[in-house]
Amino acid sequence: xxxxxxxxxxxxxxxxxxxxxxxxxxxxxxxxxxxxxxxxxxxxxxxxxxxxxxxxxxxxxxxxxxxxxxxxxxxxxxxxxxxxxxxxxxxxxxxxxxxxxxxxxxxxxxxxxxxxxxxxxxxxxxxxxxxxxxxxxxxxxxxxxxxxxxxxxxxxxxxxxxxxxxxxxxxxxxxxxxxxxxxxxxxxxxxxxxxxxxxxxxxxxxxxxxxxxxxxxxxxxxxxxxxxxxxxxxxxxxxxxxxxxxxxxxxxxxxxxxxxxxxxxxxxxxxxxxxxxxxxxxxxxxxxxxxxxxxxxxxxxxxxxxxxxxxxxxxxxxxxxxxxxxxxxxxxxxxxxxxxxxxxxxxxxxxxxxxxxxxxxxxxxxxxxxxxxxxxxxxxxxxxxxxxxxxxxxxxxxxxxxxxxxxxxxxxxxxxxxxxxxxxxxxxxxxxxxxxxxxxxxxxxxxxxxxxxxxxxxxxxxxxxxxxxxxxxxxxxxxxxxxxxxxxxxxxxxxxxxxxxxxxxxxxxxxxxxxxxxxxxxxxxxxxxxxxxxxxxxxxxxxxxxxxxxxxxxxxxxxxxxxxxxxxxxxxxxxxxxxxxxxxxxxxxxxxxxxxxxxxxxxxxxxxxx
Length: 610
Description:
This protein is α+β, with helices and mostly antiparallel strands. It folds into three domains: 2-53 and 202-345, no CATH class; 81-193, PAS domain (Beta-Lactamase, 2-Layer Sandwich), CATH 3.30.450; 461-610, Heat Shock Protein 90. It contains 13 helices and twelve strands. Strands 2-1-5-4-3 form a five-stranded antiparallel β-sheet, sandwiched between helices. A hairpin with a 4-residue loop joins β1 (100-107) and β2 (112-117). α1 (2-79) runs antiparallel to α4, α6 packs antiparallel against α9 (407-456) and α6 (286-378) crosses α10. The longest helix is centred in the middle third of the chain and has 93 residues, at 286-378.
């Protein structure tokens, strides 16, 4: 009977310990697993949203850049009515990109010049577009985008039904003088599908789900392994605790049966060991010994309870600390990714804007020289020469008599002499303008070459005559300055011991000279002056360009070289910022001085000598 009681007690103690510790572990593991699962799902959703936002922003950047670049490229083509060039540009753009569904250029009256889509390279449309999408595009004042109706897209787009497509459109304006009204030439339109973006979104979602599954499986595996080891440790602890109690119970049964000679031999210095010593004195003080036993049992229970409370507090603290670390890590990774993306996009945009701005300045000089050539050809004396030759051919049979006696014939030698001088002067002017145009084209080529070398980290510099470079830049701008009645005076010291990049220096001078010209537009036509001085000083070449134009206020002098800052109504704030960057690359700098509004301005360039 006593043996059965001891066996039941042993089983009960072990069972209770194993059950309670197991329940505590399972509850704790479920809480941890749930928390990690929630954090993982939230992180995956945040990652998906950020990825979708970045993919859509990339689509917008691609579409807006495409239509803006095409709008600039189409200006001269439309003015020259170059249909084939426009068709080749748009068709090639549609063919070379699988995500571009269609491309359209329509004039200001909604008449399509070229419609190219995936189904038809050149779709024939002989009447103006009247659909809402075309009307919205024609009313634009700047580039934007629309989402095309996927259920009923216009037939000319060639879009498959229920396919998501965004149309990017930009107005095309002609290049004109600043004081003249803007002329609207038409609208360039491209339809770009989201197929690539959708594929990337699906791939990103699959990756996030995969990471979440791997995380949860890893936690389950770790939890299973931990549970096994905890169960083994719990059984061992239960045995360690229950075995002395079994011995104690056996001795108690014997004492209860009247065997007071029974001694308990337990070699422990804990509470159970102390209890065993007390049982050895039970022969004299049985009641006191039983009371002490109850007191010690209560003390043992209190200590176990406090131990469990301490363990729970420690687990809660560890869980809270881990959650905070994971949350902060996710925030830092997200912030770092956004900063890298923004820096990359800003760098690409600034390089492209500087190249376009510098090329645009030189193209303006080419346009002015070409316009001067056209004016001279329209006023050419070649018509008078043809008429004179026709008169001579008509009287060829009696040419001698005609030249000596006829009033018209007598005037022919004098007329031919005047025509010869006029045609000679005309030819010389055409040669000079053509030379300027070739110099400008060469500068455009150098700008592009310089940017390509810059991208490869292989900048090209050479020892040059700085005064000669200044004269070349002035010669390119001469026609434009002459047309605006601007007087240029120079005081240039010969400087040949300087090593610079000629293409970059031409870009800098072109920007400053054009700014000086525009600053003089508000002056009377007989009071437009620019004075240029070049000197050596303390190992540097100092170049000053002074005008008597509209001037610069003191507040603007502080910000004038910052990217995007401009005082012009239609300015972009790229030119002077680009000049400062280019001079810094060559070891120089630039400063601006002005006494205020309508008091002129001076730009001072400082470059180190070789």
